[in-house]
UniProtKB/TrEMBL annotation:
Protein name: ABC transporter
SUPFAM superfamilies noted in UniProt: P-loop containing nucleoside triphosphate hydrolases (SSF52540)
Keyword Transcription regulation attributed: no
PROSITE patterns documented for this protein: ABC_TRANSPORTER_1, ABC_TRANSPORTER_2
Name of a matching Pfam family: ABC_tran
Key words, A-Z: ATP-binding, Nucleotide-binding, Transport
Organism of origin: Streptomyces filamentosus NRRL 15998
Record InterPro entries: AAA+_ATPase (IPR003593), ABC_transporter-like_ATP-bd (IPR003439), ABC_transporter-like_CS (IPR017871), ABC_transpr_LolD-like (IPR015854), MacB-like_ATP-bd (IPR017911), P-loop_NTPase (IPR027417)
Domain ABC transporter residue range list: 25-254
GO molecular function per UniProt: ATP binding; ATP hydrolysis activity; transmembrane transporter activity
Compositionally biased residues, Gly residues: 1-13
Transmembrane segments: none
Amino acid sequence: MSTGTGTGTGTGTAAGPAPRPRTVVALADVTKEYPGPVAALRGVDLTVEEGELLGIVGPSGSGKSTLLHIIGTLDRPTAGSVHIAGHDVAALSDRRLSALRAQHVGFVFQAFHLVPGVSARDNVAEGLLYSGLSRSVRRRKAADALARVGLADRLDHKPHQLSGGQKQRVAIARAVVGEPALLLADEPTGALDSASGAAVMELLRDLNREGATIAVITHDTEIAARLPREVRIRDGQVVADVTHGTASTTGAAL
Ligand SMILES: Nc1ncnc2c1ncn2[C@@H]1O[C@H](COP(=O)(O)OP(=O)(O)O)[C@@H](O)[C@H]1O
Ligand SMILES: [Mg+2]
Protein backbone atom coordinates (compact mmCIF):
# COMPACT_ATOMS: atom_id res chain seq x y z
CA MET A 1 0.00 0.00 0.00
CA SER A 2 1.25 3.44 -0.86
CA THR A 3 1.19 6.15 1.77
CA GLY A 4 0.52 8.58 -1.02
CA THR A 5 3.34 11.07 -0.51
CA GLY A 6 6.32 8.74 -0.66
CA THR A 7 9.22 8.71 1.72
CA GLY A 8 11.43 11.00 -0.31
CA THR A 9 15.09 11.25 0.48
CA GLY A 10 14.76 11.55 4.20
CA THR A 11 14.83 15.32 4.52
CA GLY A 12 11.89 15.00 6.87
CA THR A 13 9.85 17.97 5.70
CA ALA A 14 6.52 16.25 6.26
CA ALA A 15 7.14 15.44 9.89
CA GLY A 16 9.78 18.08 10.60
CA PRO A 17 9.48 20.74 13.28
CA ALA A 18 6.96 23.53 12.75
CA PRO A 19 8.59 26.54 11.11
CA ARG A 20 9.49 29.41 13.42
CA PRO A 21 7.14 32.35 13.33
CA ARG A 22 8.53 35.14 11.20
CA THR A 23 7.94 37.75 13.87
CA VAL A 24 10.43 37.16 16.67
CA VAL A 25 9.59 40.15 18.89
CA ALA A 26 6.29 42.02 19.12
CA LEU A 27 5.88 44.65 21.82
CA ALA A 28 2.68 46.67 21.88
CA ASP A 29 2.24 49.76 24.07
CA VAL A 30 4.67 48.44 26.67
CA THR A 31 5.19 50.44 29.83
CA LYS A 32 7.46 49.63 32.75
CA GLU A 33 7.29 51.45 36.05
CA TYR A 34 9.72 50.97 38.90
CA PRO A 35 8.89 51.99 42.47
CA GLY A 36 9.46 55.67 42.96
CA PRO A 37 7.66 55.73 40.67
CA VAL A 38 10.00 55.80 37.67
CA ALA A 39 8.44 55.39 34.22
CA ALA A 40 11.36 53.55 32.58
CA LEU A 41 9.37 52.64 29.44
CA ARG A 42 6.40 54.64 28.23
CA GLY A 43 4.32 53.10 25.47
CA VAL A 44 6.91 51.21 23.42
CA ASP A 45 5.85 49.50 20.18
CA LEU A 46 8.56 47.38 18.60
CA THR A 47 8.49 44.55 16.07
CA VAL A 48 11.51 42.50 15.05
CA GLU A 49 11.28 40.06 12.16
CA GLU A 50 13.36 36.93 11.72
CA GLY A 51 16.75 37.67 10.18
CA GLU A 52 17.03 41.29 11.32
CA LEU A 53 20.11 42.93 12.83
CA LEU A 54 19.15 46.06 14.72
CA GLY A 55 20.66 48.48 17.18
CA ILE A 56 18.71 49.88 20.11
CA VAL A 57 20.48 53.10 20.94
CA GLY A 58 19.97 55.82 23.51
CA PRO A 59 21.74 57.76 26.25
CA SER A 60 22.32 56.41 29.74
CA GLY A 61 19.05 56.12 31.65
CA SER A 62 16.87 56.10 28.53
CA GLY A 63 15.49 52.62 29.26
CA LYS A 64 17.69 50.37 27.09
CA SER A 65 18.45 47.75 29.74
CA THR A 66 14.84 47.76 30.89
CA LEU A 67 13.81 47.11 27.30
CA LEU A 68 16.39 44.32 26.98
CA HIS A 69 15.05 42.69 30.14
CA ILE A 70 11.51 42.78 28.81
CA ILE A 71 12.39 41.54 25.30
CA GLY A 72 14.52 38.81 26.90
CA THR A 73 11.62 37.83 29.22
CA LEU A 74 13.79 38.44 32.28
CA ASP A 75 11.15 40.88 33.44
CA ARG A 76 7.48 41.53 32.73
CA PRO A 77 5.96 44.85 31.68
CA THR A 78 3.68 46.90 33.93
CA ALA A 79 1.26 47.19 31.00
CA GLY A 80 1.15 46.34 27.31
CA SER A 81 1.76 43.06 25.52
CA VAL A 82 4.93 41.13 24.76
CA HIS A 83 5.15 38.28 22.26
CA ILE A 84 8.46 36.45 21.82
CA ALA A 85 8.80 33.80 19.11
CA GLY A 86 5.01 33.73 18.90
CA HIS A 87 4.42 33.23 22.64
CA ASP A 88 2.38 35.66 24.73
CA VAL A 89 4.59 36.28 27.75
CA ALA A 90 1.62 37.28 29.96
CA ALA A 91 0.04 33.85 29.44
CA LEU A 92 3.06 31.94 30.76
CA SER A 93 3.97 31.01 34.34
CA ASP A 94 7.45 31.96 35.52
CA ARG A 95 8.55 28.36 34.97
CA ARG A 96 7.24 28.22 31.39
CA LEU A 97 8.81 31.61 30.78
CA SER A 98 12.21 30.33 31.93
CA ALA A 99 11.88 27.43 29.51
CA LEU A 100 10.90 29.79 26.69
CA ARG A 101 13.94 31.95 27.47
CA ALA A 102 16.32 28.98 27.59
CA GLN A 103 15.07 27.75 24.23
CA HIS A 104 14.61 30.99 22.29
CA VAL A 105 16.88 33.73 23.64
CA GLY A 106 20.66 34.01 23.78
CA PHE A 107 22.26 36.78 25.88
CA VAL A 108 25.58 38.58 25.54
CA PHE A 109 26.60 41.14 28.17
CA GLN A 110 29.26 43.82 28.38
CA ALA A 111 31.12 41.95 31.14
CA PHE A 112 31.07 38.54 29.37
CA HIS A 113 29.80 36.60 32.43
CA LEU A 114 31.93 33.51 31.73
CA VAL A 115 32.41 30.97 34.52
CA PRO A 116 35.95 31.40 35.87
CA GLY A 117 38.24 28.36 35.93
CA VAL A 118 36.13 26.56 33.33
CA SER A 119 37.35 25.94 29.77
CA ALA A 120 35.96 27.89 26.83
CA ARG A 121 34.41 24.68 25.59
CA ASP A 122 32.57 23.95 28.84
CA ASN A 123 31.48 27.58 29.15
CA VAL A 124 29.86 27.28 25.72
CA ALA A 125 28.41 23.83 26.45
CA GLU A 126 26.61 25.44 29.40
CA GLY A 127 24.46 27.25 26.83
CA LEU A 128 22.91 23.83 26.10
CA LEU A 129 22.39 22.78 29.71
CA TYR A 130 18.59 22.74 29.38
CA SER A 131 18.52 21.31 25.86
CA GLY A 132 18.16 17.69 26.92
CA LEU A 133 21.26 16.78 24.90
CA SER A 134 23.87 14.47 26.37
CA ARG A 135 27.10 15.94 27.72
CA SER A 136 29.14 14.57 24.84
CA VAL A 137 26.80 16.10 22.25
CA ARG A 138 26.82 19.40 24.14
CA ARG A 139 30.63 19.41 24.11
CA ARG A 140 30.75 18.58 20.39
CA LYS A 141 28.33 21.38 19.57
CA ALA A 142 30.33 23.72 21.80
CA ALA A 143 33.48 22.95 19.82
CA ASP A 144 31.58 23.65 16.58
CA ALA A 145 30.29 26.97 17.95
CA LEU A 146 33.79 28.00 19.04
CA ALA A 147 35.08 27.20 15.55
CA ARG A 148 32.28 29.37 14.17
CA VAL A 149 33.54 32.39 16.17
CA GLY A 150 37.17 31.77 15.20
CA LEU A 151 38.33 30.07 18.41
CA ALA A 152 38.80 26.46 17.25
CA ASP A 153 42.31 26.60 18.71
CA ARG A 154 41.21 27.84 22.15
CA LEU A 155 38.83 25.08 23.30
CA ASP A 156 40.69 24.32 26.51
CA HIS A 157 41.65 27.87 27.40
CA LYS A 158 40.14 29.25 30.59
CA PRO A 159 38.72 32.78 30.71
CA HIS A 160 41.81 34.26 32.40
CA GLN A 161 43.92 32.90 29.51
CA LEU A 162 41.87 34.77 26.89
CA SER A 163 41.87 38.40 25.75
CA GLY A 164 38.77 40.54 26.22
CA GLY A 165 37.79 40.13 22.59
CA GLN A 166 38.24 36.37 22.80
CA LYS A 167 36.15 36.21 25.99
CA GLN A 168 33.34 38.03 24.22
CA ARG A 169 33.62 35.55 21.32
CA VAL A 170 33.21 32.70 23.80
CA ALA A 171 30.16 34.46 25.27
CA ILE A 172 28.72 34.86 21.77
CA ALA A 173 29.37 31.17 21.02
CA ARG A 174 27.55 30.26 24.25
CA ALA A 175 24.64 32.51 23.27
CA VAL A 176 24.21 31.02 19.77
CA VAL A 177 25.12 27.36 20.36
CA GLY A 178 21.45 26.49 20.93
CA GLU A 179 20.42 28.39 17.78
CA PRO A 180 18.04 30.75 19.60
CA ALA A 181 15.34 32.67 17.77
CA LEU A 182 16.89 35.88 19.10
CA LEU A 183 20.35 37.01 20.20
CA LEU A 184 20.30 39.97 22.60
CA ALA A 185 23.57 41.80 23.19
CA ASP A 186 23.74 44.55 25.86
CA GLU A 187 26.72 46.84 25.13
CA PRO A 188 28.77 43.90 23.77
CA THR A 189 31.74 46.14 22.91
CA GLY A 190 31.56 48.27 26.05
CA ALA A 191 34.52 46.59 27.77
CA LEU A 192 36.69 46.19 24.66
CA ASP A 193 39.32 48.28 22.89
CA SER A 194 38.16 49.63 19.56
CA ALA A 195 39.84 46.95 17.40
CA SER A 196 38.38 44.07 19.44
CA GLY A 197 35.03 45.84 19.53
CA ALA A 198 35.01 46.20 15.76
CA ALA A 199 35.86 42.50 15.40
CA VAL A 200 32.99 41.54 17.71
CA MET A 201 30.58 43.69 15.66
CA GLU A 202 31.88 42.03 12.48
CA LEU A 203 31.25 38.62 14.04
CA LEU A 204 27.67 39.63 14.86
CA ARG A 205 27.23 40.73 11.24
CA ASP A 206 28.57 37.35 10.04
CA LEU A 207 26.16 35.47 12.31
CA ASN A 208 23.32 37.64 11.02
CA ARG A 209 24.32 36.87 7.42
CA GLU A 210 24.09 33.19 8.37
CA GLY A 211 20.52 33.81 9.55
CA ALA A 212 20.67 34.86 13.22
CA THR A 213 18.23 37.54 14.43
CA ILE A 214 20.19 39.98 16.58
CA ALA A 215 19.40 43.06 18.67
CA VAL A 216 22.38 45.06 19.93
CA ILE A 217 21.81 47.51 22.78
CA THR A 218 24.32 50.34 22.70
CA HIS A 219 24.86 53.95 23.74
CA ASP A 220 27.40 54.23 20.87
CA THR A 221 25.75 56.14 18.03
CA GLU A 222 28.55 55.19 15.59
CA ILE A 223 27.97 51.48 16.14
CA ALA A 224 24.20 51.92 15.78
CA ALA A 225 24.55 53.96 12.58
CA ARG A 226 26.43 51.09 10.93
CA LEU A 227 23.68 48.54 11.57
CA PRO A 228 20.90 47.89 9.05
CA ARG A 229 18.25 49.18 11.46
CA GLU A 230 18.53 51.63 14.31
CA VAL A 231 15.85 52.10 16.96
CA ARG A 232 16.48 55.25 18.99
CA ILE A 233 15.10 55.42 22.50
CA ARG A 234 14.92 58.43 24.79
CA ASP A 235 13.16 58.86 28.15
CA GLY A 236 11.50 55.46 27.76
CA GLN A 237 10.04 56.09 24.31
CA VAL A 238 11.03 55.08 20.79
CA VAL A 239 11.80 58.39 19.08
CA ALA A 240 13.10 57.05 15.75
CA ASP A 241 13.19 53.76 13.86
CA VAL A 242 15.59 54.11 10.96
CA THR A 243 16.50 51.67 8.20
CA HIS A 244 19.96 52.40 6.88
CA GLY A 245 20.63 51.91 3.19
CA THR A 246 23.46 49.54 2.39
CA ALA A 247 24.40 50.95 -1.03
CA SER A 248 26.15 54.19 -0.05
CA THR A 249 29.70 53.98 1.21
CA THR A 250 30.54 57.64 0.67
CA GLY A 251 29.18 58.83 3.98
CA ALA A 252 27.82 61.89 2.19
CA ALA A 253 24.35 61.32 3.60
CA LEU A 254 25.54 60.99 7.18
N1 LIG B 1 15.34 48.37 39.44
C1 LIG B 1 15.08 49.69 39.27
N2 LIG B 1 14.40 50.38 40.20
C2 LIG B 1 14.10 51.69 40.04
N3 LIG B 1 14.44 52.40 38.94
C3 LIG B 1 15.14 51.76 37.97
C4 LIG B 1 15.49 50.37 38.07
N4 LIG B 1 16.17 50.01 36.95
C5 LIG B 1 16.24 51.11 36.19
N5 LIG B 1 15.63 52.17 36.79
C6 LIG B 1 15.47 53.53 36.23
O1 LIG B 1 14.80 53.39 34.98
C7 LIG B 1 15.37 54.27 34.01
C8 LIG B 1 15.91 53.45 32.83
O2 LIG B 1 17.00 52.65 33.26
P1 LIG B 1 17.79 51.64 32.28
O3 LIG B 1 16.80 50.81 31.58
O4 LIG B 1 18.81 50.94 33.11
O5 LIG B 1 18.48 52.66 31.26
P2 LIG B 1 19.76 52.47 30.30
O6 LIG B 1 20.07 51.02 30.20
O7 LIG B 1 19.34 53.10 29.01
O8 LIG B 1 20.88 53.23 30.94
C9 LIG B 1 16.44 55.07 34.74
O9 LIG B 1 15.88 56.28 35.15
C10 LIG B 1 16.79 54.20 35.92
O10 LIG B 1 17.26 54.98 36.99
MG1 LIG C 1 21.86 49.93 30.52
